[in-house]
Amino acid sequence: MKRITFTLLVISSAALLVTALQARTRPRYGDTLRADTQTVVMSGDPTPDALAGEVFENLVKADSNGHLQPGLATLWNTNNGGYRWEFYLREGVTFHDGTTFDAAAVVRSFSKVANTPWRVRAGNGSVIFESDTAQPNLPALLSLPEYAIASTNSDGDVAGTGPFSLDKRTGPMFSLKANDDYWGGRPFMDSLELLTSRSLRDQSTDFSFDRADVVELAPEQLRKAQQDRMRLDTSRPSETIFLVFDSAKPELRDIRLRQAVALCVDRAAIRNVIFQHQSEIASGLLPNWLSGYEFLFSSEQDIMHARQLRLEVGQVGALTIGYDSGDLTGRLIAERIALNAHDIGLNLQAVAGTGDLRLRHVDLRSLNAAAALNEIVDRLNLGSPAPSPSADSLYNNERAALQTFSAIPLVHLPRVTVLKDRVRDWTPSPAGTWHLDEVWIARSTRTEVHP
Known about the structure:
Layout (H helix, E strand, L loop, with lengths): L1 H24 L6 E5 L23 E3 L5 E3 L2 E6 L5 E6 L13 H9 L7 E4 L3 E5 L7 H4 L9 E2 L5 E2 L4 E7 L2 E6 L12 E5 L4 H9 L5 E4 L4 H6 L4 E14 L9 H10 L2 H8 L5 E2 L6 H4 L11 H11 L5 E5 L4 H15 L5 E5 L4 E7 L5 H11 L11 H12 L4 E13 L3 E2 L15 E2 L10
Helix pairs in contact: 6-9
């Protein structure tokens, strides 16, 4: 009898302990999350990318595997090979200002997007996209931030449909509040303060003095942060540094000279020395984890071939390679490339600001390979993006863009995020995208100390 009583007591104690632990970790409503980002938001941008997914939503979204999922549209189809698409809209959705989300609102939103190859009209509970050329990738393209749906009133105020609404904006600071009527369920946090255009140094200061809960970290600082046991979320390589030819000088129009520069760059040194192995050598526009075929493109340094091409071009004047002022890492990359160029007889000088060549950072804004490639080709002016409905056509399109040697991929970088301990249910993303609507804030029982 005593043994049975003791056993029941142990079981009851264990059950109480589990219940207590569950209560301690149960999501709670309330509090404000403070996040810093380098993302620059122009003063006249009514629907900035920094608010994509939080304030403004798309008809379609891509999940962590790049598969398309319903967003503000629940279903879509085409019956003529992509010349005409119909997207059926989600019911029961309203904009933050109380206006109705319907086909007419979607048409008005798309009317403000310039240079699209399609026409949009309202259907019966749907919107219809029509084009003179086939658009097999249209659902993937509509998942990009620039195609988020917004409603603009007569005063010019813009409203979205997302889990947070824009409360106010003060310069680079965006104050958001929870949308109690969000169709996907109210977020746990009451509010969100997003400080944009914040340098990495200032972000580190904000984090150290407990002025921010979530900040970004440079990849080259990842190893030290790991040694310091900081709480980190490290994405797959999702940002690429390109060397872009940005001059109308006649000699740079010669593809042989551009190819010579591509062949002389020592990408391994950039990865190993500057980024302390915390990056991947880039040979393609897309990282291999997303495309699956990047390894088919060469990234090997070939000084002999580069010198031969350089001699074929003939006389070339002094050239400059520009990097952003204040960007120490960019300066180191530019100076190393200038040294590589000297090895093949090119007079290339690293300069702060604009140059004949320049370094450019391009991040992945979609986990769908077709949409991501389309956007990179467009942003780097590498020609007219072609439809990529299959892996073969995707590869052929990327190879054609690379063979112009107008933009030379150097390295792929991960996106590193540093988190306070009180930030809970953080959802990692392959591309480092923040899903702040899924986060909740734990009550602090002690003062957090971080390096």
